[in-house]
């Protein structure tokens, strides 16, 4: 079997670029999650306001 030097046998550079991609993707996911949480809480607050307005109108006699 032919002996290959370790420097030529490598598939790519050391793991820094992969680490940067992983960390940046985790940051992006965290930002998207935060945006979804804020949007979800805003939607639930406006639904509560609409529900309370609807209940008030229905309970009032005509």
Automatic annotation (TrEMBL):
Transmembrane segments: 18-36
Entry keywords, A to Z: Membrane, Transmembrane, Transmembrane helix
Protein name per the record: Flagellar basal body-associated protein FliL
């Amino acid at each position: 079997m032919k002996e290959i030097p370790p420097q030529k046998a490598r598939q790519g550079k050391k793991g820094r670029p992969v680490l940067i991609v992983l960390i940046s993707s985790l940051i992006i996911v965290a930002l998207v999650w935060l945006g979804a949480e804020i949007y979800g809480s805003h939607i639930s607050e406006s639904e509560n306001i609409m529900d309370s307005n609807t209940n008030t109108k229905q309970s009032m006699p005509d």
